Amino acid sequence: MSRDPESESKGWWRTLPGLLTAAAGIITALTGLLVAVHQTGFFDRSPQPVSETRSEPHPTDSSHPIRTESAAAAPAVGTSASRSLTLPENAEVRSGQAVFKLLLARLDPYSPGKASLHLTVRMTNNDRFDANFWAASFRLLVDGSLQSPANDLNELVSSHSAKEGDVDFVIPANISTAGLQMGDVGDGKPTITLNLQPPGQ
């Protein structure tokens, strides 16, 4: 029995669309599988770096010494406490119609090798006119040289009245005596001797 070539050709073309459809379905399924696997990151996996845990060295006594209060609050060299000075018996000077009286004398630390001599003075004006009460009326004789005040006293004392003021001098810390001039100042003018030494010396 012989086969009909025309019928076999028609059978092949009838089967081809089914094969193509099946192949397309398989390709679609594989594509979906690949997409799903890719989304899970299966192909992007790379070895994770090993995390290193560094242990910080604890500070030792040698690297961070303990600070004590005595070291942090070390006193400055050459400083000393303030102290009042003993006033001389004659602490009053008359200059024209004005009378100057030394009321207080104090020695304060100023800087290394220096001290501040703080004086409180009362000026009495017996004139019928007002009078100046200022730094120009005071000088301090130190080691043979006259020094002017470090502050700028500038007051006015009414007639027949009195007023107190402060006068400051910066002097060497190692001197033992100084001469104070009030009212009438200059070379050869009278001075009041101030003892700058601590009591008992």
Task: Give short descriptive properties of this protein.
201 residues, alpha+beta, Immunoglobulin-like, 2 domains, four-stranded antiparallel sheet, 35% strand
* Total of DSSP H or I helical runs spanning 4+ residues: 2
- Could you say which structural class the secondary elements and strand pairing correspond to? alpha+beta
Tell me the distance between the termini: 156 Å
Helix content: 10-25%
Catalogue the unreliable spans: 62-79
Q: Tell me what portion of residues adopts beta-strand conformation.
A: 25-35%
Q: Give the rounded overall mean pLDDT.
A: 80
Return Rg in Å: 53 Å
Largest pleated sheet: 5 strands, antiparallel
Q: Could you say what the CATH architecture of the largest domain is?
A: Sandwich
Beta strand count: 11
Number of domains: 2
CATH topology of the largest domain: Immunoglobulin-like
In short:
The chain crosses the membrane at residues 12-37. This protein is an alpha+beta fold.
Walkthrough of the structure:
Residues 70-82 have a biased composition (Low complexity). The chain crosses the membrane at residues 12-37. Residues 53-67 have a biased composition (Basic and acidic residues). It contains two helices and eleven strands, in the order ααβββββββββββ. It is α+β, with helices and mostly antiparallel strands. The protein has two domains: 1-42; 83-195, Immunoglobulin-like, CATH 2.60.40. The strands form three sheets. Strands 1, 2, 3, 4 and 9 form a five-stranded antiparallel β-sheet that branches. A four-stranded antiparallel β-sheet has the order 7-6-10-11, with no helix packed on it. A hairpin with a 2-residue loop joins strand 2 (92-95) and strand 3 (98-111). 15% of the residues are buried.
